[in-house]
Design goal:
Layout lengths: L6 E4 L5 E5 L5 E3 H12 L11 E4 L8 E6 L1 E5 L6 E6 L1 E6 L5 E2 L8 E5 L10 H10 L5 H5 L4 H16 L13
C-alpha cells in the first residue's frame, strides 16, 4: 500500500480536485486508490462524501476499475510542457449527479492520458479460435505445430490488430509460446 505524499485533495470545490503536486509524471491506479482512501479517512475529510470506488483484481487477472466520485485528477503545471500518465487499470469519473465527466482536469502545460485496460487483457483461447477460423487457419495448428508457431502469429497479427486494436498486442505475442 503506497500513500503518495504529493497528492492532496481540494474538498471544497465541485468536482473535487485531486492535486498531483510534484513533477510526478506517472501515477498508478493502485497508488491513487490507496492514497485517496487514506486521505478520505483523515479527520478533515471524514464528513465529505465518498471520493473513490474501485473493483477488480480478482485472481490477479482482471485490471482495477476505479471511479472518482465528484472528483478529477489535476497534474501540477511545472512551467514546461510535459506528458503525464495514469496507468494500471480503468479510470472513470462521475460528477455530483452521477454523470460521466473527464477524470483528468485541465492544467496549463500538461497533457495527461489515462490508459484503459480490458477484462480480456490477454486474448482468450475462444478469441484465438474464432479469429483463426475466420481467416481459414485450422485451430489445431496451435497445438500440433509448435515449431511453426511464429508463422501462425504472423498470419494472425493483422487480424488481431483489427479485432483488438493496435499497440499493446504487439507486446503480447508471447502468449502463443
Amino acid at each position: 500500500m503506497a500513500i503518495l505524499e504529493e497528492i492532496t485533495v481540494d474538498w471544497d470545490v465541485s468536482p473535487r480536485i485531486v492535486n498531483v503536486n510534484s513533477g510526478t509524471g506517472e501515477l498508478t491506479i493502485q497508488d491513487l486508490y490507496d492514497t485517496l482512501r487514506y486521505l478520505a479517512s483523515q479527520p478533515d475529510a471524514m464528513d465529505d462524501a465518498e471520493i473513490v470506488d474501485a473493483g477488480g483484481k480478482e485472481g490477479g487477472v482482471v485490471a482495477i476499475t476505479m471511479t472518482l466520485k465528484n472528483a478529477q485528477i489535476q497534474f501540477q503545471d511545472t512551467g514546461t510542457p510535459r506528458l503525464c500518465k495514469v496507468l494500471g487499470g480503468n479510470l472513470f469519473a462521475l460528477d455530483v449527479d452521477g454523470y460521466d465527466i473527464n477524470p483528468i482536469a485541465y492544467n496549463t502545460n500538461v497533457t495527461a492520458t489515462f490508459a484503459q485496460s480490458t477484462a480480456a487483457a490477454l486474448v482468450q483461447d475462444a478469441d484465438i479460435d474464432t479469429i483463426m477460423t475466420r481467416i481459414g487457419v485450422p485451430t489445431s495448428t496451435l497445438a500440433s505445430d509448435l515449431d511453426d508457431i511464429q508463422s501462425t502469429v504472423n498470419v494472425l497479427h493483422p487480424e488481431l490488430k483489427t479485432e483488438h486494436g493496435s499497440g499493446l498486442w504487439e507486446k503480447r505475442r508471447g502468449i502463443f509460446k
